[in-house]
Amino acid sequence: MSKFAGTASPRVDRAYSFALTVDFVSSPWPAHVVYLHDYYNPASLKLPYELHYGDCNCSDPCQIDTCRNAQMNVLCTDSCCDWEELCANRPL
Which domain of life does this protein belong to (predicted)? Predict the structure, then answer.
């Protein structure tokens, strides 16, 4: 026997339950937003490998708009950036 056998089930007011039916209609896709199809795979993106391109020379933790590496479209790594986890230009 179930330990919940003595509990009462909640009563549903049928008039109220029929009033809650909502039809969801999909909205049109905004024209200024690019639609990524099912075949888009972000894991398939390949970044160029740079052996050594110098230190980023950021005096504060790297910001995308001021970091030399970010301006060259290169991600910061441990070998070129002293800020490690504080760097905004690090790969995830």
Answer: Eukaryota
